[in-house]
Amino acid sequence: MASSIRVRATSNGDITEVQTLIQHPMDTGLVKNPAGELIPAHYIQQLKFECNGKDVFVADWGTAVSKDPYVKFSFKGAKKGDELKISWTDNKGASDTTTAKIA
């Protein structure tokens, strides 16, 4: 099964820029289906980025994040070839993890 996470990380000098797209429904639990029944909440609770085993970005999310979230940030302290690990867990216990080399 393909990962739900697509990531691109590039280093320019001391700054590493990370762009990530995650496929997830991010249902709030407030929307009804065509039959008029509420669609249960289903959203990412925690998103984590680690570089060489050290946390560089951790987000605790709720229902206010849109479907298929896009995250872009930058950090210092990495170099080209370092490994970046991205993982998420959601409110139903599902999770996904992927790794990428910083280019």
Automatic annotation (TrEMBL):
- Residues covered by the Sulphur oxidation protein SoxZ domain: 6-100
State the InterPro entries in the record.
Answer: Ig-like_fold, Ig_E-set, SoxZ, SoxZ_dom
Give the source's domain of life in one word: Bacteria
Which Pfam families does the entry link to?
SoxZ
Alphabetized Gene3D superfamilies for the sequence: Immunoglobulins
Name it. Thiosulfate oxidation carrier complex protein SoxZ
Lineage runs: Bacteria, Pseudomonadati, Pseudomonadota, Alphaproteobacteria, Hyphomicrobiales
Whichever gene encodes this chain, its name is soxZ
